[in-house]
Amino acid sequence: MRNRFLFWSILGAIAVAEIYGFAAVRTAFAPATAAGRRGLAIGYWLLTLAVWAVGLWAMFTRHKGDAEFKSYLSVLPLALLAGKMVVVLPLLLEDLTRVGRWAARGFGSSSPPLSAASRLTRSEFISRLALGLGLVPVLSILWGMVKGKTDYTVRRVVLRYPNLPASFEGFKILQISDLHTGSFNGNTEPMERAVAMINAQKADLIVMTGDLVNNIATEVEPHIPALAGIRSELPIFSILGNHDYGDYVQWESVEAKRDNLRRLAQNHAKIGWKLLLDESHTIRRGTDELAVLGVQNWSSHPQFPKHGKLAQTHAASGNAPFKLLLSHDPSHWEAQVLDYKDIDLTLSGHTHGMQFGINLPFFKWSPVKYSYPQWAGLYENGRQKLYVNVGLGYLGVPMRAGFLPEITVLELRRA
């Protein structure tokens, strides 16, 4: 029932956006003749249907032929739809204002009605303004396809803890997540550039919080030389994400799927990463200790796997005075992690910030927030903190706008 409601809601929203989009174009350009208006209407709807047809064809046949080219085609209707959604807002506000004026006049308001000429001028202005605003998300998405998807950004965060051992004052943790190497189609240049940026940070500890591949272990193999170039004096720790298990592929046998996971674990080792499978590792500085816990994927969402064994992993961490947990899915934090009061910092990924949204210092928004309460950046509950990295790679849609691929540097300080 819920899925059916969601389907019809989405379909209704698309219909409203298309209708208002046409209204804006028709009013903004206002052909003087009936033939001109008819031609504009035919052209608009034929172009709209063509874009949707090409986009849907590309989506449903993306596994055949040139997958990368089809992935770009599949973005086109989404880009135009995002623009039209923005167009709806000023036009809907104008319609509500017009209804308010009509109601006021109906109840005896002395305000004179606008002339036909002034109404037309106002409508044209608002329609052109709406179309101009609608260009912002369209151009942002197109930029995100060309440049944004590999426009790597370093984010720096200072975290303060009263219980941080003195030897770990200023300790820098670098987090990467969701590399999704299968999306690069063998192009190694972006990953080589990212590795150079990672090494330039000179972090004390480097961690990778899951989704190294999209589906198959071999996807990362062209990138192993680049990723093996990440330099760290301490071990580089990694964990598995939901995509790493191969759950989204039709395997010829259960054993073939298991072999894929074994090969992926071997690839982590070839890169030089220590894959934590419900394990804990202790880092020592003098007599001080910091425990790094790594669990397999665990999600509170039913469509994602629950492999992680937090109780087992936590028990293995002993009495370390500071505990850092790597857990791919941020929904794990509220569902289980907060019950373990001595887990000070949790690092997650998974959401990608949906690869699209508004990301300003004073305001963040993305559609993914309606599924994940913790979806990008820093969250706190008492002494416990969660940081959600929006990912280094991209999946499905070859685009990032607003939430750019991220390398996070978290510096620990004593409160």
Description:
With 415 residues, the protein is an alpha/beta fold. It has 2 domains: 2-146; 152-414, Metallo-dependent phosphatases (Purple Acid Phosphatase, chain A, domain 2, 4-Layer Sandwich). 41% of the residues lie in helices and 17% in strands. It contains 9 helices and 14 strands. It has helices at residues 2-29, 34-60, 67-106, 116-146, 189-200, 224-227, 254-271, 310-316, 331-335, and strands spanning 153-161, 172-176, 205-208, 236-238, 273-275, 279-285, 288-294, 323-326, 345-348, 358-360, 363-365, 377-381, 384-388, 406-414. The strands form 3 sheets. Strands 1-14-2-3-4-5 form a 6-stranded mixed β-sheet. Strand 3, helix 6 (224-227) and strand 4 (236-238) form a beta-alpha-beta unit.
Query: Number of helix segments?
Result: 9
Biggest beta sheet attributes: 6 strands, mixed
How far from one another are the termini? 50 Å
Structural class: alpha/beta
CATH class category name of the largest domain: Alpha Beta
Strand content: 15-25%
